[in-house]
Amino acid sequence: MKQVRVGVIGTGSISEMHLNSYSSHPGAVIAAICDANETRARQVAEKYGADKTYTDYEELLADPDIDAVSICTWNNTHAPISIAALKAGKHVLVEKPLCRTVEEALEVERTVRSTGKLLQVGVVRRYDDNVQMIREFAANGEFGELYYAKASMIRRHGNPGGWFADVERSGGGPLIDIGVHVIDLCWYLMGRPKAVTVSANTYKKLGNRSNVQYLSHYKAADYDATKNTVEDMANAIIRFENGASLMVDVSYSLHAKQDEGYVKLYGDKGGFEIDPAIAIVTEKHNTILNIQPQTDSLAGFQFESAFRNEINHFVECIVNGATPISPVEDGVEMMKILCAVYESAAKGEEIRL
Q1: Residue 118 gets which letter from DSSP?
Q2: Helix count (H) and strand count (E) of the chain?
Q3: Which of 121, 222, 238, 322 could hold 317 in an S-S bridge, CB 3.0 to 4.6 Å?
């Protein structure tokens, strides 16, 4: 079987998860690396055995030897690079979020349809083994109608700065960076109902808190303490056409005792938790049961294995012509929700999609 020859565009921190996963897949070859920083591109190419390096993604896309690309760049480049890659005949795995605006998302979707190429959105939490396990339970009706979900990802001191804190490049702060993961996860597990209204708030009260001492956190490579144009936190209630609802709150910076996160969904026959650990609640013979599935790991999101699953799925979809479990259409719907959160907060009113 012909191996899929992949080019990785962007060598920031998230690219390492793509590169490690491709390098361990027998059906994939890391053929090229592209980064505006030529030295870094060459270092990464040498580490992963890529034959070619580029500083211009258009030159990589013109290479007929490349079958597919992973796009691991700033959010503001996701749409133009995805569109160019699709038009160049490449399959695309693009990191979340799909882009920054609904208009960009719709243009990407149109290009997928016109080119017939595959685009997979990198919402990696869908690919976690525990999520796929619990989704099978839900699909088989174990929880009945999932009508309510709530999710939280609170960082008390976790603004990465750099491009993450630059709204022009990122499109937003914690909502579009980490909130997208839990919103998408809940929506996916609820069966992807159509969102109809969003009511939300965003706050810019604390900034990046670069004054804080004695407590470290991850910082982007281009961290600059003087620059921060994104929200500290966001909260929202999202209503769906089937009557279900989702409540979510996320933050980079908040006067909280500690970082915390949870993802919980409730149905009329049972409920379950994804974060901080897998748990199932149901009722049998007039008795409430708390059930703990037996899996390799119950504790939270398994980062590395989920990325391997995501990359494996991308390669398999290319080889078999299958539709990915995170297709472009889902990326479009997620952008509609995220943009509606920002619009609702800006206008101080509920937004109807």
Answers
A1: -
A2: 11, 15
A3: 322
